[in-house]
Design brief:
TIM Barrel; DNA-binding transcription factor activity; 52% helix
């Protein structure tokens, strides 16, 4: 749903930077917000994100959306809801550019800044460029701003006639001139004079005054990142009619701004680091400045930063002045040092700066300028009163639209608060569950209180009946010095304790305990109890036991893996014969049939999952296990390719069926020998989730980030058969509950989230990490963020029962029948 864009005010816009974590190069959202607030409070009237300064070519679409959302949230947090955001949305095709415009709009952008397509620059005639911008404007949900910047668009120069023709489109809101051509700007300004709302932007900090003289309504300046107040001062002096003062301020700004802009993004970030303590480094391959360049830049910025600091101090002294009145003259006369002001007065009178002007002349000029400032303030007040009177005659439609916008903003705030409270509630519930006393523990306390053994408890070492944090860490994380912990106090007398403890009368020296934790370090760790070595030892014993029982399969701690291993073994025996080997397409066909019979016999409820999600990745990993070669490996989805740990040790085969490498490694290290590993895997699969925006799913909803579990969608789509004529409902829908109660809406949401094709979008519900905290070390990029959308009841995927002779025989006979048919069809 399209929304009204915020108006483009006259003034200075910042060409925003993007900030990254120094170690991971991920988006530094906290710095992004603080930076936005600093510039806004310095007088910046709008922000242009995802341009050259924002390192847009280095960011994914998701990261671009994050920058936009953080900028919007920062502005809203300080009451600047009406400050517009412009986002760079440049691709080399109409489709790609419109896609970026749609993404930016959903993230909270008001306007899209679009370069001409330039990859195939020789084919970009004026007619092609005009057609490109017209098509983009036709399909973009937000107004677009033309971007004339030949330096980054293969030298393509859009002349004033072309820009004026394109600008006649109602969805074209303005033009940015980074070309520095004041003549072109002036001609476009004249051509677009009839459109009062059309914006014309200069594109450089040293181009502010020339652009304003040529007819610009504002300037988008990279220099505003470092010296926002100076840029704003140049604009305001021009607005007040003080051209000579604006020219002098522009000269200082142009000289200092060049010191960092000439060095590109690295220079600007180095200046921010040096002057304000934030900025970080650009994304590689861009490098930070050397110390020599930094020293040279620091010296060149001296004069400009002195002006910026003086303007910053001035703004603190004038906060008591009515913001509706124009007080830039007040700053000029009350803040400028006397000797500088006197020089300005002498120069303004045409006298030489050798002191020939008398104090009386200077006083007269001061009074004259003060009177001019007063008249301008009076004119501004009259203009403001007229605008208020005109606004009182707005029709009911405009008033209703304004109320709707306010209502939407309030709903966004309420939704964000709800999401935060929901997250807090989940954390508190998890804390309550983890700290609740067990019933048997309470009984133990009562029995111990009544036990006569309490009389001698004071002479025995105090121990804890729970494993310590050192015991729960993997072996590799514990030093030998950390492995001495207090022993577990048993309920029954411990011969070891009785033998080694000194008599009660000799307890003055140190006590020596010989508990199990000291004898066997890390006995309570996951790796010791259920790691790959434990699994391997148990598997060897199970093979011997299986031979004695004459079983045709090997029974392990994972019944799921027993089924998979047996099917893989039978397929390999039938298809990988020494003289006759199935071709790969036929091998994939046979494997698909075998896995289908497996799910049909042992996991009937799971067929709905595979039907709705098209999860064929498990077939590919099975084929690679049967025939490990380069061709089968290349067909594996990147997320299913084995890790180094998987290639170096034994583990249950069901682990291979999970699409998250870090989770697979955790399962191998901590659960390979776990008798409940099938339940753990079922928990993981049932927690697959996909993130989206609530506004994409529900009408009139705010653009709040939410996530939906794939299992809940599959459950909601259960009533729709594959051959059904029912089609997906249109999105957005009316209510959130429709997603889980109306199958056609669930089908539409599944299509929107691309659960069949975009495995890279899959995340994990945060509740998984509460249930299994051992996965927290892998939670980084895998944990879904936002508010959960969920039905009243969620189901879990089942896992197969233990293998028996009847099931194994069914598998063997079916695979033999299938493979024989495949061989015959090949002949």
């Amino acid at each position: 749903m399209e929304r009204a864009a915020r108006a483009l005010p006259r003034g200075i816009f910042a060409a925003s930077m993007s900030f990254f974590d120094k170690t991971t190069e991920s988006i530094d959202t906290q710095t992004q917000r603080q930076y936005t607030i600093r510039l806004s409070e310095a007088g910046i009237v709008g922000f242009v994100v995802m341009g050259s300064n924002g390192e847009a070519p280095h960011l994914s679409i998701e990261e671009r959306n994050t920058i936009i959302r953080e900028t919007r949230n920062a502005l809203d947090s300080i009451g600047k809801q009406q400050t517009p955001i412009i986002a760079g949305c440049s691709e080399h095709s109409v489709r790609g550019t419109v896609h970026l415009c749609n993404e930016a709009s959903r993230a909270g952008t008001d306007y899209a800044l679009v370069l001409p397509p330039s990859y195939f620059s020789k084919g970009m005639s004026p007619e092609v460029i005009e057609s490109f911008f017209t098509d983009v404007a036709d399909h973009s949900p937000i107004p677009i701003i033309l971007y004339s910047f030949p330096a980054v668009s293969a030298g393509i120069e859009m002349d004033s006639g072309l820009l004026s023709r394109i600008s006649q489109h109602p969805n074209v809101a303005g033009t940015k001139f980074t070309c520095g051509d004041t003549g072109k700007l002036s001609r476009v300004s004249t051509a677009m004079k009839s459109r009062q709302s059309y914006a014309l932007f200069g594109g450089l900090a040293d181009f502010i005054l020339p652009a304003l003289v040529a007819g610009a309504t504002g300037v988008i300046a990279g220099g505003a990142n470092v010296t926002p107040r100076t840029c704003v001062q140049v604009f305001d002096l021009w607005q007040e009619g003080l051209v000579e003062e604006a020219r002098e301020m522009q000269a200082i700004l142009a000289k200092g701004d060049w010191e960092h802009t000439a060095r590109g993004i690295s220079g600007t970030k180095a200046a921010l680091n040096d002057l304000f303590g934030y900025g970080g480094s650009p994304r590689r391959p861009l490098k930070m400045l050397s110390e020599a360049f930094l020293s040279e830049m620091r010296a060149g910025l001296g004069e400009l930063m002195a002006v910026e600091e003086r303007l910053g101090a001035s703004s603190l002294k004038t906060k008591c002045i009515d913001p509706r009145r124009n007080y830039r003259h007040y700053l000029l006369f009350r803040i400028t040092p006397p000797e500088v002001f006197d020089k300005l007065c002498i120069d303004a009178m045409g006298k030489k700066a050798n002191g020939t002007a008398t104090s009386q002349d200077i006083k007269k000029l001061r009074n004259r300028l003060s009177q001019q400032a007063f008249r301008r303030r009076r004119d501004d007040l009259i203009r403001e009163l007229r605008e208020r009177a005109d606004n009182n005659h707005t029709n009911e439609t405009e008033a209703l639209a304004k109320l709707r916008r306010e209502n939407t903003a309030l709903r966004e705030q309420l939704a964000e608060a709800h999401a935060k409270l929901n997250s807090l509630l989940s954390g508190v519930q998890a804390l309550v569950l983890n700290t609740a006393p067990r019933h048997e523990d309470a009984n133990d306390e009562v029995s111990r209180a009544n036990s006569p053994d309490d009389d001698v408890s004071a002479s025995q070492p105090i121990v804890d009946d729970q494993p310590t944090s050192a015991d729960l860490r993997p072996i590799s994380q514990n030093d030998a010095s950390e492995q001495t912990v207090q022993p577990v106090q048993p309920d029954e007398p411990n011969p070891c304790l009785e033998a080694d403890l000194p008599p009660t009368s000799d307890l003055g020296g140190p006590m020596i305990a010989c508990g199990m934790t000291q004898q066997i370090p890390n006995i309570w760790s996951f790796e010791y109890q259920m790691g790959p070595q434990v699994y391997n030892d148990a598997l060897v014993s199970a093979q011997d036991l299986g031979h004695s029982r004459r079983q045709i399969w090997v029974e392990s701690n994972s019944s799921f893996s027993d089924h998979i291993d047996f099917i893989q073994h039978e397929l390999k025996a039938r298809t990988e014969q020494p003289k006759v080997q199935l071709s790969l397409p036929l091998l994939y066909l046979a494997t698909t049939s075998a896995l289908s019979i497996f799910h049909t016999i042992s996991r009937q409820d799971v067929m709905l999952w595979y039907t709705k999600t098209r999860f064929y990745y498990t077939r590919d990993i099975t084929v690679w296990k049967i025939r490990p070669c380069e061709e089968t490996f290349n067909k594996l989805h990147p997320q299913y390719r084995p890790t180094l740990l998987q290639l170096s040790c034994s583990y249950p085969a069901v682990v291979d069926w999970l699409p998250f490498p870090s989770i697979r490694d955790c399962l191998v290290r901590y659960h390979a020998g776990n008798p409940c590993i099938d339940q753990v895997v079922s928990d993981v699969v049932s927690m697959y989730a996909v993130e989206t925006l609530l506004s994409d799913l529900v009408i009139d909803a705010p653009p709040l980030q939410v996530y939906v579990k794939v299992m809940d969608l599959v459950q909601a789509m259960g009533a729709i058969d594959e051959d059904s004529s029912e089609r997906p409902a249109p999105l957005p829908t009316l209510k959130v509950t429709d997603i889980f109660n109306v199958p056609s809406v669930a089908l539409a949401v599944a299509s929107h989230l691309q659960i069949e094709t975009r495995l890279d979008r899959y995340k994990l519900d945060p509740r998984l990490f509460i249930r299994h905290p051992e996965f927290l070390e892998s939670a980084g990029s895998l944990m879904a963020h936002g508010a959960p959308l969920q039905p009243d009841y969620s189901s879990y995927l089942s896992f197969p029962a233990s293998m028996d002779n009847k099931t194994a025989s069914s598998y063997r006979n079916f695979i033999a029948f299938t493979c024989s048919n495949v061989y015959q069809s090949r002949e």
